[in-house]
Amino acid sequence: MINDKLPKIWYGGDYNPEQWGPEEWKEDQRMFKLAGIDVATINVFSWALNQPDEDTYDFGWLDETMDRLHKDGVGVVLATSTGAHPAWMAKRHPDVTRVDFYGRKRKFGGRHNSCPNSPTYRKYSRLMAGKLAERYKDHPALLLWHVSNEYGGFCYCDNCAAEFRVWLQKRYGTLDAVNEAWNTRFWGHTFYDWDEIVLPDGLSEEGEGNVSAFQGISLDYRRFMSDSLLECYNIEAEAIREHSKDVPITTNLMGTFPLLNYFDWAKHMDIVSWDNYPSLTTPVSETAMTHDLMRGLKHGAPFMLMEQTPSQQNWQAYNSLKRPGVMRLWSYQAVARGADTVMFFQMRRSKGACEKFHGAVIEHVGHENTRVFREVAQLGEELGRLGDTLLDAVTEAKVGIVYDWENRWAMELSSGPTVELNYVREVHKFYDALFKQGIEADMISAQADFSKYDIVIAPVMYMVKPGFAEKSEAFTAAGGTFITTFFSGIVNETDLVTLGGYPGELRKLLGIWAEEIDALPLGQYNEIVMKQPYGKLTGSYKCEMLFDLIHAEGAEVLAEYGSDFYKGMPALTVNRFGEGKAYYVATSADSDFMEGFLGAVCAEKGVQPLVPELPAGVEVARRVKDGRSFLFVLNHNAESATVRTGDVKRRDLLSGVTVDGAAEVPGRGVLILEEAE
Amino acid sequence: MINDKLPKIWYGGDYNPEQWGPEEWKEDQRMFKLAGIDVATINVFSWALNQPDEDTYDFGWLDETMDRLHKDGVGVVLATSTGAHPAWMAKRHPDVTRVDFYGRKRKFGGRHNSCPNSPTYRKYSRLMAGKLAERYKDHPALLLWHVSNEYGGFCYCDNCAAEFRVWLQKRYGTLDAVNEAWNTRFWGHTFYDWDEIVLPDGLSEEGEGNVSAFQGISLDYRRFMSDSLLECYNIEAEAIREHSKDVPITTNLMGTFPLLNYFDWAKHMDIVSWDNYPSLTTPVSETAMTHDLMRGLKHGAPFMLMEQTPSQQNWQAYNSLKRPGVMRLWSYQAVARGADTVMFFQMRRSKGACEKFHGAVIEHVGHENTRVFREVAQLGEELGRLGDTLLDAVTEAKVGIVYDWENRWAMELSSGPTVELNYVREVHKFYDALFKQGIEADMISAQADFSKYDIVIAPVMYMVKPGFAEKSEAFTAAGGTFITTFFSGIVNETDLVTLGGYPGELRKLLGIWAEEIDALPLGQYNEIVMKQPYGKLTGSYKCEMLFDLIHAEGAEVLAEYGSDFYKGMPALTVNRFGEGKAYYVATSADSDFMEGFLGAVCAEKGVQPLVPELPAGVEVARRVKDGRSFLFVLNHNAESATVRTGDVKRRDLLSGVTVDGAAEVPGRGVLILEEAE
Amino acid sequence: MINDKLPKIWYGGDYNPEQWGPEEWKEDQRMFKLAGIDVATINVFSWALNQPDEDTYDFGWLDETMDRLHKDGVGVVLATSTGAHPAWMAKRHPDVTRVDFYGRKRKFGGRHNSCPNSPTYRKYSRLMAGKLAERYKDHPALLLWHVSNEYGGFCYCDNCAAEFRVWLQKRYGTLDAVNEAWNTRFWGHTFYDWDEIVLPDGLSEEGEGNVSAFQGISLDYRRFMSDSLLECYNIEAEAIREHSKDVPITTNLMGTFPLLNYFDWAKHMDIVSWDNYPSLTTPVSETAMTHDLMRGLKHGAPFMLMEQTPSQQNWQAYNSLKRPGVMRLWSYQAVARGADTVMFFQMRRSKGACEKFHGAVIEHVGHENTRVFREVAQLGEELGRLGDTLLDAVTEAKVGIVYDWENRWAMELSSGPTVELNYVREVHKFYDALFKQGIEADMISAQADFSKYDIVIAPVMYMVKPGFAEKSEAFTAAGGTFITTFFSGIVNETDLVTLGGYPGELRKLLGIWAEEIDALPLGQYNEIVMKQPYGKLTGSYKCEMLFDLIHAEGAEVLAEYGSDFYKGMPALTVNRFGEGKAYYVATSADSDFMEGFLGAVCAEKGVQPLVPELPAGVEVARRVKDGRSFLFVLNHNAESATVRTGDVKRRDLLSGVTVDGAAEVPGRGVLILEEAE
């Protein structure tokens, strides 16, 4: 339980009373009650208010807010206010503002605006976090610490350059090791002095869009930036811990946000929290995957849905409204996948600046007679009824999908073979194929323990870090099923190619050799032709983008290419390895293939779907706790759907209705079915 | 009359003899006469020539030019030559060049190149204007002063930043008021010192394409820049007035150019003039609207067509030739809508630099035996025959369409609900629906007196400035018809939302409440379904982009949405308010709806079209003077068209032919029909 | 012969042993032998290795490499290593790095990274070239000097600005002449002091994509940059010549690379060499044209194919594999068109940085059992068998096509009449029409001697430099056929329009006057309607983009426009001029027209195709030497094709088979048919 002061699914969100006055505060109080709001995230952007100059701190407004919320029965997620620095600080200490990709010094403005290696920023953010912790550590409203806000962004200033050199010295020891790791003999880039190393930006090695002349440098810069921002988090977290010993600390993450290695970050966070903002075209299975990834950051521990919009966003191109029922449906999707909170950005809509068209629980009209508020209040009532039933319940997947930020960085920095390779899209193809069949999966790191899984999938495992190949071999030898794809096993952790034939360190496990890699524009297809039926797979399927030209070296060939000069070469292979099997998918396949292939592999391993058959657009997920099992059925269709739930009788926690064998789920409806295990 | 020295429609244009020598001057003289040219705009880009260094002025060439033109019977529009500063000035006084959106100091080059707050630029441009006025104030050729050229562009230098702070102090008085106006509590942007305020550029609050984190700051910066450039105009105008008391002063505007608030500017100009450069795809009704807007800047006073190309442009992607007859047709379009001059850029084509492929009266071939020259000469002959008949004639529209630059800035800076909202396009939809039915409209400012109109349309009136709502209510209460649309009444003049329910200050007048605003990608349609026929409106019409979800609060519902979850909610309402009616169009409708709707509203108010029925592609407009009425019929089709002109007999000023009931207008032909009132 | 030490078609390529160790060197040795490799380009990017600091030079690794290669029978193309400067140099001497288009000082990184006017770069590159020449001038492995690598790129630093002024003083003498040449009276740009002239960049006169306010300035800057880089080449070449008197010197060019005037460069090079990297969509006839252009740089002398990929590239969007047979086919295409070497980038694939996914003879797998290596080895064996048979053989075309870099620069800088005009595409349309009919062409400069040709084609000869018109007239008067097109004869060498009617200086020769130029978006067509059949031309053909509205002034009209207001005006004319004819194609015609038109013109002049009839996708070319004639037949189709080769019996050099009248050429197959003359 995040904090036993509030033993239920937390319900509330970002709240900025400092933008308002007593009249609105009174209305907030009344409407929070109507909506069942029991938690508020405050102080996110109040640095300038808390500290009007170098030496003055003024927490009067915050004292009052904390007290008022407590009196109203609303707990507090207390942010440290360091998400954007004050204007006076930028004016007096230019080191706090960033330098951009083209070497331009930024001025005061926006957010994500502090250089992570700025001495001033580090000094004052540490001080602020410490003062807040000291002051509020025992406040009865306090539920959780929320450090800064949505960390992200790069800086290219001289302080960062100097710290990068220190970071490199720590990582590599000698300049020779750096030259070796980056292969600097290429293009005569040998460094003879640490000071010759400059940051890889638009004036040195890089171009916009992850284009780099030296992948090794650019990759290390990304590691360094993720580490630098994490240090900022740690500085504040440590300052808090000096005073507040037990209240958990988090910061809000952003799903598959590319710039930060969240697996590293999660080690330093007490609980993972994240902000869920799907766009108009995000598939629901991608949102599900991202929830699972956030759950995976701390090995399956429940997480917090820190932000979502109750209605619409403002920063998309087209900010469509969440259709009636969708906010509730997506809230339960989060809970189904491990969230123990349902929180919004934000409680009351701002009246000025760039987020004034972002939806809120309390809209500009200011009263409760809105569709949005009614839906919020209905959900609040339901969550109140659910109490602590679901808290700390976990997921028990037998399939693990590897997701690795460093692999993503390296792959997206790659010059060739194609500009179209998108890591998230390729991982999602595997996830989606399981999702549609109601098969549970965990999203796991490349460093994860594989032994708890029956099947481990590592899509496009371009970078193989030390120990990964050995671990995968051991897992497979012990009976596991390992799956990987084209463009895997290519480089080591510094982006140097593993010589001797692709897929490098994974070659033995997979029993193949990839001689060449063809790349074609999207829309130019080859075919995967099955040699004989495998599960439901039979006949031929479309594939595109990249095509490994592989030779079986011990592996069995399950399918071949159907055309072009590599017609007849293997497109899908399986290698028996010890007690297990290792599959290689040599190209980017269509969704029919993916579904058939993963269905067959799961069947082979006895990994069962959660329900016998799943209508299109219906999602299932399960959380388990103290021997109780909760099956979530989420109908993402506008129309109702009939879902066969199997032989066990179950009871819907929300409606109390008993389901026997099949349930009719209304359009955008949700069931939480408890079964006897 | 602009200047009674030349009591006819002026005919001529930009003339740069300083690029040529005596041989060409002689030819110019001969060919001007052949073409009926009687006015030349000179000295537009001769600063470097007039002032070769800090202290030297040399107007010898200009004396000669003025005298020569006068001798040849050509009047002079005398520009002040400050449209581009000299190279020596940029070299010696770097403050004259601008700093761009990314903080980069510009070097010498291009035009629009002077910082509007540069002390050097202001000093030398004032001196230049004064010297010219002193020298030529009594020159017999002088007809008009033309200050600088096509003002525009932004600067982000330190001088501008300092002046911005002064401007803010004047506007807001206190820093508290600034913080309040900009809602700086959002993202902790509170300013404690004026010097903390920086310009909103690509290094602070903005991104390219009107993207801003703080709309209030960006909006004020746009106001400040418009004011700064206007100050540059005023500095020169005042320097001229010290010497030249009566000759009118103008500068050439650019239609719907986004950066300058021309309604403000026009207050300081003696006559409005503008440069008309439609692109290959500009609808003729948009050009007509822009002429009407230019006429509206000074409440209906005649204006000058200062520039148009006789043949083709050079800076479009595809510079197609004006087809035979089109130059004449579009010249009369300007006159029909209030222009008392027809002028070209330019008289003789340059032989070098970027405008050498811009059309001219005298082409590179140098003689008169060209299609372009023949068409120019024919028009010159006609304008000579028209004499002063049309001068000072006015338009008597009963429909006013509000066009507001500040509203446009605020709306286009908005983050959400859609990136597709284009102010000019939405205004034009209304204009076009009237245009196609031959109904006259004035383009008016938000500050205009509404009482002379029967119908006032304020499309997408996102920003409601002080007094606007009261004025609209009074207008409607007194029997007027007021029309506005979705996304209106949202913010006040500093872009702060009017709380309590959209459309804010307009809510009472309209009798509705807009609870939510849906946004969908272009091409995803809903339908406007009429509850019963209204005028010709019946059945259903397509609508897209933004969809206000409104509730009638007293208003009558004329049409509803046809699909999606807001099917059945109002899409078109009318509210009886005092003696009048207020209509609300809740979404962006198709052109069939627009035409039917405005046709019905006009019929209801007894606003008559100029002709009983208008064939597609034919434009009508009317100017009235001393009890005489001139009906312009402009056939934009390549083929001839028959236009019914009603029961009155009329005479075509151009051909002398009498029209009785109907006229056959040749392809691209023009009639100017005088009727007895 | 390039160097009589190696009297055969050289076979090898770029080799970077400094990126590897003894183990790989040994394998290289073994595999070079297997593949018939006899030449290696080394030391291309080893500056940092050769010179670790200001004063230290260390050629130990190079001594060993040279000796080892020699021992193994591999000759050396010795690069000077100055293609990218060392990191220490950038650190200690910032003048070596460039300033970019927006005035941003670049840091160390990438390649093409040295300012061409940097005193430091010039000093150290001269020293390096001299030291290398002194050390290796007599090394038995040395075959050729290779200065720097793929020169290119612009710099906008202060050193360049200062040198630009010196360059201008040399070119123009006086500032008055500069002002005149650039027409600076336009926009008041008159310069009164040399120091007022700034480089035309994104902060002064230019915008991205060849957009300029002053074409004359921008054009001279391009000339200056081409000259500045050429000076860098000359500095090194002269330093080499001080020691190495006879070994030829080259640098690798890049085909139609836009930035350098290669006709100027070739005058200073002993032999032309170039890097051939067609993209996925480059037509084979464009590659052929580029080979012919490279051959044309030194008036038909054999050239070197310095780089091509054996398999795939890495820097295209989609790096597809060369299909089986294609590498061999394209290698022979180079030979067919004049190459006396077949060389690859690169011998062994790098294991790190941005080119690690660029194909190589020795792939990452490291052994010879790859498709790529087998194809390389097969070709190596064939080239060995061919010996010196083809060396120094030349081409005997009777058609010359003018290609002019300055014309391209000026045309692409032009503002108007269309953004779509692409010089290479227009030239290629003519080349392709000949290519498809098996008619040989030379690509020649505007300064070339026309007298050896029967037909000279100068497509879109926008800029007519001094002497060109006179030469073209003399050529035609003497019986030649001259062909040019729309948008020709417009400006002189400083981009000033030739007044008095287009096509200016070419008007007399062509017997026409182009009164206007219409421009329409691509996809909007007019038609070329033949007045009577001409050769196979009959009926009507599509044309687009630009449309000259011409009048025949003595010329005969062969075809007219089919629509729009210029229907019936001439679209194709021919003017009898002395003993010859001058054709004018007034618009951009479709490929059917082009083929028919050039077929007819060639037939008229008795210019014969190499074979009686050519199947689609089959290329023919001929080289001639010592009375022997070699007809290359290259089948670019995947399927076999039958080619009629005429009455003479011929023998295929590759297979030894005799061909009598017709040959079946396999898919992607090659014949080299020797005939008795």
UniProtKB/TrEMBL annotation, chains A, B, C:
Its EC number is 3.2.1.23. It catalyses: Hydrolysis of terminal non-reducing beta-D-galactose residues in beta-D-galactosides. The active site is at 150 (proton donor), 307 (nucleophile). Substrate binds at residues 111, 149, 315. The keyword NADP does not apply. Pfam families: Glyco_hydro_42 (PF02449), Glyco_hydro_42C (PF08533), Glyco_hydro_42M (PF08532). InterPro entries: Beta_galactosidase_C, Beta_galactosidase_Trimer, Class_I_gatase-like, GH, Glyco_hydro_42, Glyco_hydro_42_N, Glyco_hydro_b. GO terms for biological process: galactose metabolic process. Residues 14-385 form the Glycoside hydrolase family 42 N-terminal domain. Zn(2+) binds at residues 115, 155, 157, 160. Residues 397-607 form the Beta-galactosidase trimerisation domain. The keyword Hydrolase applies. Belongs to the glycosyl hydrolase 42 family. PANTHER family: BETA-GALACTOSIDASE GANA. This is Beta-galactosidase. It comes from Paenibacillus rhizosphaerae.
